[in-house]
Amino acid sequence: MSSQNVIPAKAGIQTLDPGFRQGDVLLPPDVAAPLSRSWTEAEAFEFCSALTKSHYENFPVGSFLMPRALQPAVHSLYAFMRTADDFSDERRMPGDEQERLAYLNAWDRMLSACEAGRQPAGTAAGWHPIFIALKITLDTYQLPVQWLRDLLTAFKMDCTVRRYQTYEDLLRYCRYSANPVGRLILTLFGYRSEELYRLSDAICTGLQLANHWQDVAVDLEKDRIYLPQEDLDRFGVSVSSLQKKICDASFKQLLQFEVQKTRAFFEQGRPLPGRVRGRLRLELGLTWKGGVRILDKIEAAGCDVFHRRPVVTKFDWLRLFISSVIPACRKPESGDGSPADDRGG
Questions:
Q1: Cβ count within 10 A of residue 261
Q2: What ranges make up the beta strands (E) of the chain?
Q3: Percent of the chain having pLDDT more than 70?
Q4: How far, in Å, CA of 345 to CA of 341, rounded?
């Protein structure tokens, strides 16, 4: 490799064109590109904000409902998650399984360096802007890094696991892929109650499951099946029939079964919005209703998710927003473990 392609090493970490090299792994060129320049803290947060706003999600993560003071922190977390998620998605990141795992391992090592504080002072030249912003967020809000590692575990599972034998196997995946997000948001707002974390886990698991059921057809195109094998066997649904998109009585009974189990998670987490205050109450209430609305749409379609993907439309969100405003104006229930300052107001 010619010397003109080598970016000077920083803090013992060497960056090379076309990607970031750490040990024996590389980051893809588009992700490594920001490493070729220095970033101020303000620029790093702007980078994360732009990345966040360029993606659409089912649920309003970092939306206008978030207090302006918290949006940079939310955007830095989202940028970290979104990039890692892209590494695990073969449609967004062409390459074999081992290459995608290598990207995730590089991201994991960068997280460890970030946690250890091995970050150059000042502009942090040579560091990825996502980790510059993330380091500040982690330190400012005292967020457990383990929750980010749990997310990386889920993304690595996405690279290697395409079938789930039991429902408990699927719930384990949800504990890594979804639950940390809710805990991070609660903690950003100053809530550190284990009871609230458990309610959040229920909602986040429900959201993840609802997404799986609306995306049965989409996931099949990627050779992924989140319907547990034990449930397929219970209703006599074969993998072959799924691949052929046969929406018969057996499949409809199967999906109805999954939808009902998912509703139980939403019911378990239902008290959460009423236990927090301000904008967070509205945000969580809207998110809860959005997840339930997906389940409603699956059932309204007769559980046929093969021929039309159930989605929450902008009109749906408007109605859900209006229906969430009045409950959000009520005082939080007692014993909510809320912080002294209302960051959600």
A1: 14
A2: 6-10, 13-16, 21-22, 25-26
A3: 76
A4: 9
What three-state secondary structure class fits 140?
helix
Final residue belonging to a domain, choices 113, 143, 160: 160
Q: Are residues 188 and 264 in the same domain?
A: yes
Q: Which two tokens stand for residue 150?
A: 């749990």
In 3D, which of 169, 178, 153 has the Cα closest to residue 228? 169
Q: Give DSSP secondary structure letters for 85-151.
A: HHHH-TTTS-S-HHHHHHHHHHHHHHHHHHHHT---STT-TTS-HHHHHHHHHHHHHT--HHHHHHH
For residue 108, the enclosing domain spans: 19-160
Q: How many domains does the chain have?
A: 2
The phi, psi pair for 222, rounded to 5°, reads -100, 15
Mention every residue, 6+ apart, whose C-beta is less than 8 A from residue 12.
118
CA-closest candidate to residue 63, choices 54, 53, 73: 53
278: CATH: 1.10.600.10
Under 8 Å between Cβ of 247 and 306: yes
Reduced to 3 states (helix: H, G, I; strand: E, B; else coil), residue 16 is strand
- Which tokens is 79 given? 């940028």
Q: Give residues with Cβ within 8 angstroms of 221, minimum separation 6.
A: none
Query: Mean pLDDT over residues 174-193, rounded?
Result: 96
Query: Based on the domain organization, do 245 and 296 belong to the same domain?
Result: yes
Same domain, 139 and 224: no
Q: How many Å apart are CA 174 and CA 207, to the nearest integer?
A: 9
Length of the chain, in residues: 345
Q: At what angle do helices 249-269 and 194-214 cross, to 10 degrees?
A: 160
96 against 308, higher pLDDT: 308
What per-residue confidence (pLDDT) applies to 329? 55
Q: Where are the alpha helices (DSSP H) in 224-313?
A: 229-235, 239-243, 249-269, 278-300
Q: Is the pTM of this model over 0.85?
A: no
235 vs 253: CA distance, rounded Å: 7
**Gap between the Cα atoms of 251 and 257, Å rounded:** 10
Q: Is residue 168 part of a domain?
A: yes
Residue 341, both tokens: 């300052």
Per-residue pLDDT tens over the stretch 156-174: 999 999 999 999 999 999 9
- Using an 8 Å Cβ cutoff, are 65 and 285 in contact? no
